[in-house]
Amino acid sequence: MIEQHLTHIDERGDVRMVDVSAKPDTERVAVAEGFISMKPETLALIMEGAAAKGDVLACARVAGVMAAKRTSELIPMCHPLNITKAKVECAPVVANERPDGRTGIQVTCTCGVTGKTGIEMEALTAASVACLTVYDMCKAVDRGMEIMDIRLLKKDGGKTGLWERA
Length: 166
Hints:
molybdenum cofactor biosynthesis; 4 helices; single chain; alpha+beta; about 25% helix; Alpha-Beta Plaits
């Protein structure tokens, strides 16, 4: 059995940044997603390109990439990474396409790096910020939007190898 422990907590219980200096550089990838639910009318406004602030999905994609690149500035124990890939996809979802019947935007973020530590936090941050950007750009017409289902779908690389959500 593998002993599991919190890597960002030392033997005294203090937080610390993990020392990864002895680890080899490996190719790593992570995929995360998020969903922002909204009124069908709000989704129609986005898809028609009629939002007052401009192209909502283009702005969300750019914001997600920017967030991935700045994750270590937001999450205290994250290492700064030289990201080699950051892709944010935003897809409209209508009510009959989800089990919960919600309408909205599905955000999927893929990040890659060749380095000593994983890139999961960058993918998760990108998904979160892309969803927040949609909210910011559409809040004037729909303050009831909800951001949900921010989660890791896949990570690959490093000592632990492949993990995928079932």
